[in-house]
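Let us work through a complete example step by step.
Step 1: write down the sequence.
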Amino acid sequence: MQGYIYNTEQEAITARQQAADYMGLPLNEGDTTIYWVNYNYASLNEPPFYYIRYVDGLEAVFGQPTEFEVIVNDMP
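Step 2: predict the structure and record it as tokens.
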């Protein structure tokens, strides 16, 4: 997938807020949508990391995304 990798949860939280600020979210106090993107945790990767998936326009905030793989647990 394409996106942005962060070493700590705090870095991912900060990045999520930067993206929201760029989009002007939330539009109004009490709005349901407060973030443009969210972060995830790649717990099965070694070493584990936090990441935000690329969405169109996000490069305006973070620059060009990188390509990486996330290991997921197969559900029975």
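Step 3: interpret the result. The first helix runs from residue 9 to 23.
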